[in-house]
Design brief:
This protein is of the alpha+beta class and about 180 residues long. It has one domain. Helix content is about 50%, strand content about 10%.
Length: about 180
């Protein structure tokens, strides 16, 4: 904000009592006491590996899916690239080539082997299906409108967050959304 002191980077947060980074994937998570005695956790995602990642899905895609399935506020800073850009693209109706099983297997033989190992045990351990087509469809169906209804930003502001490469703009938009949901 113009004229703000440099140590102040957000206004309007009601009562966040903790910020932390998820050690597994680098997500910034903000905890708030919530309203009407309901705890609130907000997920802020950026980056995320497109290859050479640990797990079954690129970067933070699993975290994005968990947040939208739970209808938690979610902020996707896709302008910094990585898996956050994939999620943003899919939510905005595009099908990124990186979010396909064929692409992931083509760039990593070990990933293809991991998926086969996983699928061989899927029934025995009742593991969920890893279907990139369904994942891309779920992100697209959730879309920018549902994201905006939950995270306190307009559709236009979410699209700006999807594409900005400015740390200041991404923080401003994220804090604006957090303030609106608190």
């Amino acid at each position: 904000m113009p004229g703000a002191r440099p140590e102040i980077w957000a206004y309007g947060l009601r009562n966040p009592y903790r910020f932390s980074f998820d050690r597994a994937n680098g997500d910034l998570i903000q905890a708030d006491v919530g309203q009407n005695n309901i705890e609130e956790i907000d997920r802020i995602v950026l980056g995320g590996k497109l290859q050479g990642y640990s797990g079954l899905l690129p970067g933070i895609i699993e975290e994005v899916l968990l947040a939208i399935r739970r209808r938690q506020p979610l902020y996707i800073a896709g302008g910094f690239g990585g898996a956050a850009r994939l999620a943003a693209s899919a939510m905005d109706g595009r099908r990124p080539k990186y979010l396909t099983r064929g692409y992931q297997e083509s760039i990593s033989q070990s990933y293809a082997e991991t998926l086969r190992f996983y699928e061989d045990r899927q029934t025995q351990f009742a593991l969920p299906d890893v279907n990139f087509g369904h994942i891309a469809s779920e992100l697209e169906e959730y879309g920018v409108a549902k994201l905006a209804a939950i995270n306190g930003l307009t559709e236009s502001e979410n699209r700006e967050l999807f594409s900005t490469g400015s740390v200041d703009a991404a923080l401003h938009l994220t804090m604006k959304g957090l303030a609106a949901t608190s």
